[in-house]
Amino acid sequence: MTSSTIVTPVELTESDRRHAARLEEVWKEPSGFLGWFKAVHHTTIGKRYMVTAFVFFSLAGLLAGVMRLQLAFPEAHILSNDKYNQFFTVHGSTMMFLFAVPMMFEALSVYLVPLMVGTRNIAFPRLNAYSYYLYLFGGMMLWIAFFCNTGADRGWFSYVPLAGPDYGPGKRPDFWAQMITFTEVSALAVAVEIVVTVFRLRAPGMSLNRIPIFVWGQVVVAFMVIFALPGVVLSSTMLLIDRTCGTQFFNPAAGGDVLLYQHLFWWFGHPEVYIIFIPGTAIVSTIVTTFSRRHMFGYLMVVLALVATGFMAFGLWVHHMFATGIPQIAESYFTAASMTIAIPTGAQVFCWLVTLATGKVVLKPPLWWVIGFFFVFIMGGMTGIFLASVPVDLQVHDTYFVVAHFHYVLIGGAVFPLFGALSYWFPKITGRMLNATLDQVSFWLFFIGFNTTFFPMHLVGLRGMPRRVYTYQPGMGWTVLNQVESFGYVLLFLSVCIMLWNVYRSARRGTIAGSNPWSAGTLEWATTSPPPSYDFLYLPTVNGREALWDAAPNQPIVVGLHDDVRSFLTTRILDAEPDGHEEFPSPTMWPFWAAVATGAAFVGSIFTPWGITLGAIPVAIMMIGWFWPERQPAERRRAREIWQSE
Amino acid sequence: MMFLAAVPGFSGDQTSLNPVGPGASHIEHTFALIFWITAVVYCIVMAVLVISIWRRHHSLDTMPDPQPTSAESDQRAQRMVAGAIGVTIVLLFTMMISSFAASRAIATMNYEQALTIHVFGHEWWWEVQYPSDQAWKTVVTANEIHVPVGVTIRIHGTSRDVIHSFWAPNVQGKRDLLPGYDTDLMLKVDQPGRYRGQCAEYCGEQHAHMAFYIVAQSPDDFDHWLQGQQKSATPPATPQTLHGQQVFLTHACVMCHTIRGTTAGSRVGPDLTHLASRTTIAAGMLPNNTANLAGWILNAQNIKPGCRMPPNGLSGSDLQDLVAYLETLQ
After folding, report:
1. Beta carbons within 8 Å of A435's beta carbon, 6+ residues apart
2. Which of A189, B212, B276, B313 is the most buried (most CB within 10 A)?
């Protein structure tokens, strides 16, 4: 036990106010233009992640609009084949790597997880800032290249040999490959932070079986990121050095193997889908609990389902490769595995249904988005069973049926919950409520627009329309359906515009939310909206799964942490008993400079293999600056260690 | 299952729901089973969702206090959830077995009696070969695969450049053609007719225009066609076609194309020995007629940007004669 003692909370007294002022003094983000680059608090970085990811979502959505225009007419010439190939590749790559994962995992977990586990910042805050800048630079690089007509054009998967040195001339695939490196390094950094935050920084009393389901979801995703992403980093790096250094990993003429790339890519690519939608289901669990006014039914089953999904997601990758002609026994295994993963997801659905059916349901906008999620996502799950069956997959694979399927899964499983999350946590982030009427309008437009756009794709796929075609011939029976789809896009576009307007207006003039407008049970609602720069005046303690609902009448708080340094409490992994206290590092420019140096090395390696070799030198210099020890914290740490060892 | 695809103006010659061979029909049966199971389950789950929200919802401005949960009702719910998961498992198992059965039926199609046809994917057309013991009898054509009805066919395929995917949905599921790998796809067509197929793996600039036709004929018609294809090209008979042949042999054409019976023997582009017997050009993109041929020769880049055929600055009379010659290549 440390010097912290647990006492009962009291009304905000004069000493509390002094405490708050001192915390503010220590924790406030640096101001001014340079201060922007020094910020390290998780709410600041989390908001930046959200805004940036949403900008990429909008840009990629606009590309989709142009593609829908092109496909509304057979043999249309709105986009040339070359432009169309860039458009669909950049659309897919942006949505997957620059929107879905950064938004569902990085943005949401960076902002919410530290609040939900009741600590003052994310573990390794400087690494967190560094990860954001890398992500930003990687996204900007892809899009600047795109605007210079060097947009990636080999699909978001960039299969070899199409993206290899012989068939992918120019620098387009290289920019794609390095965009992967940027975003994956950034996601790996956040994954490590989340694992440590959740396992070591939880509020006292938040034992493993009391961790909010949302946080469980993000931990599972963090582990999946750690195991899945090296696969794609490896494959895209091998692709890059095949292209720039003359290696022959994927050249069949020199003993290379084109299937190796696919295995490495899908080793990552399939878990990627779950990385995107597990946070979505975790949001659903949170919203369903709050708006059913009861504890989640089957907490244990839901958590185990999340963990099981995380494991099983690594056993399915070959179902993206059924058409390559793999042995029968392997086909059977991957069919069985792909169908089995429906079981944990089904269990979660049943638990949500029971929670709703036995609760006191309050129909507010966040719950509407969740209802939309049910209709859309479950449909996507059902069409997934078609794809799990090898023979049926051989007919629908790489057709518009698959395009429909994964938009149902990813928009259903991620974007619907995300907009629900926006509606739900907007008051926490801005301190004001989102306008409910406008929210409702954008929900219905989105729901109808989504189904108008994507449902006909099932049919057009069954009628034989392949994916990734820039046009099609008249008389195929595809024209009308494509026009319906394109019309649906207009509704989706309007919906997102209304939502943006709503966010803009409500952030300025919305009703003041107060700290807990939904009277929800998790810890982020225990502090003011928006949270102060130190998150909690006194670190909370936890007495049940829904910390605020289950709080004892005199629920203790943590006191006794130093308020003259950025100190925080560490707790044990299983039962969250306090076992020490530590200091967060102070704001600094070093992560920004380190990201600039890393970015220069990555971009340089597109043009010459020396990019990494020479680029490593400035990176090393920046890292030395970053980790240069400061005298006072070092002395405090030494004193603490002496004290703790006694 | 054709109701899913039924629509005016849709010929049904490129859909998995209108099977004309055992491969596609086995798949269609599994498809139908999965379709009906998932459709019914989806409707039930959505009904439960809507009914439970309908029954339990309150339109309140303020959020009510969290409700205590009753151990008794939760226990009942636990049994229901366990039951629902049980049903899920049984249904998944049913669909899985059906899927295995279809895979097995397709995999056990008769290999020994099969007629072998070699298919090579190119950016962006299909090379088709009918191998024979005697080299001179080997038939090479492009983008149209003639097959005898009721005979098992072994499509032995690979790619000459990037990954393509061979897919004629009325006949059989798709199979990727990978550079560095050979693959065998068994298929059989039961009804005579023309079935469209298309490359299903993104293969670059003109992936959208990489179609082919499977032409299913009675065995007699097929033999007749094959014998015709085994012959060398008809020598030009008129001064115009003779000049057309000269144009072919003295311009860029000869760098890429073969016409058996002449000195043109390059294998980069499609074999043109029996060009006029094919109904389409440019991999199923255009009907094979005088205007399209002339336009294609003059500037294929206008029609199919990025394709390997360069523009040819031929004079009007040269072009006319060349097209006239090509049209004699029955």
Report:
1. A502, A505, A506, A510
2. B212
Contact B168, B177 (CB under 8 A): no
- Residue-wise pLDDT tens digits, B265-310: 899 999 999 999 999 999 999 999 999 999 999 999 999 999 999 9
Q: How is A355-423 classified by DSSP, letter by letter?
A: HHHHS-EE--HHHHHHHHHHHHHHHHHHHHHHHHSHHHHHHHTTBHHHHHHHHHHHIIIIIHHHHHHHH
For residue B147, the distance in angstroms to the closest alpha carbon of chain A comes to: 21
Q: What CA–CA distance (Å, rounded) separates A137 from A126?
A: 17
Q: If pLDDT is split at 50, 70 and 90, which confidence band does A637 have?
A: confident
Longest dimension (CA), chain B: 98
What lies within 8 Å, CB to CB, of B231 at 6+ separation is none
Contact A470 B208 (CB under 8 A): yes
Which residues of A are less than 8 Å from B58 in CB distance? 360-363
Handedness of CA A264, A270, A276, A282 (dihedral sign): negative
Give the amino acid at A427.
P
Question: How do A578-583 and B172-177 pair as beta strands?
Answer: unpaired
Residues of chain A with Cβ-Cβ distance to B34 below 8 Å are 385-386, 389, 392
Q: Are A169 and A125 in contact (CB under 8 A)?
A: no
pLDDT reading at A8 higher than 70? no
CA distance to A321, A469, A607, B307, per residue, from A155 (Å): 16, 11, 21, 19
**Would you give the DSSP letter of residue A600?**
H
The two tokens of residue A303 are 């958590």
Question: In this complex, how many residue pairs, one in chain A and one in chain B, have their CB atoms less than 8 Å apart?
Answer: 273
Q: Which two tokens stand for residue B301?
A: 């880049």
Cβ atoms A56, A484 nearer than 8 A: no
Cα–Cα distance measured from residue B11 to residue A348, given in angstroms and rounded to the nearest whole number: 43
The C-alpha atoms of residue A459 and residue A139 are separated, in whole angstroms, by 34
Polymer length of chain B: 330
- Could you write out the DSSP letters of every residue in B90-128? HHHHHHHHHHHHHHHHHHTS-STTPEEEEEEEETTEEEE
| Three-class HEC string of A137-181 | HHHHHHHHHHHCCCCCCCCCCCCCCCCCCCCCCCCHHHHHHHHHH
Encode pLDDT of B145-193 as tens digits: 999 999 999 999 999 999 999 999 999 999 999 999 999 999 999 999 9
A332–B100: do the CB atoms touch at under 8 Å?
yes
Pick A80's closest partner by Cβ from B52, B100, B305.
B305
Cβ neighbours of residue A452 closer than 8 Å, sequence gap 6 or more: A484, A485, A487, A488, A491
CA B328 to chain centre: 29
Instruction: Specify the pLDDT at position A632.
Output: 80
The pTM of this model reads 0.94
Strands of A497-630, DSSP E: 539-540, 557-559, 567-571, 578-583
With vertex at residue B146, the alpha carbon angle to CA B144 and CA B148, rounded to the nearest 5 degrees, is 165
B135: closest CA of chain A, how far (Å): 26
Q: Which residues of A touch B73 (CB under 8 A)?
A: 358
The answer to whether A385 contacts B38, with C-beta atoms less than 8 Å apart, is: yes
Is A73 an interface residue toward B (CB < 8 Å)?
no
| Residues of chain A positioned with their CB less than 8 A from the CB of B214 | none
* Type of residue numbered B321: D
Q: Which residues, including other chains, have CB under 8 Å from residue A610's CB and lie 6 or more apart?
A: A604
Q: Is residue A3 scored above 50 in pLDDT?
A: no
**Partner-chain residue, chosen from A294, A332, A336, that has the shortest CB–CB distance to B67:** A294
> CB-based contact (8 Å) between A361 and chain B?
yes
Give tens-digit pLDDT for A104-130.
Answer: 999 999 999 999 999 999 999 999 999
B36–chain A Cβ distance below 8 A for any pair: no
Nearest CA in chain B to A168: B204
